[in-house]
Amino acid sequence: MPEVEHGALVSGDNDLVLFVRTRDAESLRDLVLERLQMMEDVLSTHTILVFDEL
């Protein structure tokens, strides 16, 4: 997926963290609801918006 800039397997409540970059909120919605959540092995998603990078 071209929107994925970084992916990491992690421990704890989540198995995978993806850092994605989309052009707008509609593109993010499509990525999460229509593409990621439709994958057979994806049970749930949790989205956090990054407003600025340090």
Detailed description of the structure:
With 54 residues, this protein is of the alpha+beta class. It has one domain: Alpha-Beta Plaits (2-Layer Sandwich), CATH 3.30.70.920. The chain has one helix and two strands. The chain has a two-stranded antiparallel ribbon with strand order 1-2. The longest helix is centred in the middle third of the chain and has 12 residues, at 25-36. It is globular. 0% of the residues are buried. The model has no long low-confidence stretch (mean pLDDT 95).
Q: How much helix, percentage-wise, in residues?
A: 10-25%
CATH architecture: 2-Layer Sandwich
CATH superfamily: Lrp/AsnC effector binding domain/regulation of amino acid metabolism (RAM) domain
Secondary-structure element order, as H and E? EEH
Please name the CATH topology.
Answer: Alpha-Beta Plaits
Note the main sheet: 2 strands, antiparallel
- Which band does the percent of strand residues land in? 15-25%
Beta-strand segment tally? 2
Q: What is the CA–CA distance across the termini?
A: 25 Å
Q: SS-based structural class?
A: alpha+beta
List segments where confidence is low: pLDDT < 50 over at least 5 consecutive residues: none
Question: What is the chains' assembly state?
Answer: single chain
* Mean pLDDT over the residues: 95
- Globular, elongated, flat, extended or rod-shaped: what is the shape? globular
Radius of gyration: 12 Å
Strand order of the largest sheet: 1-2
In CATH's first tier, which class applies?
Alpha Beta
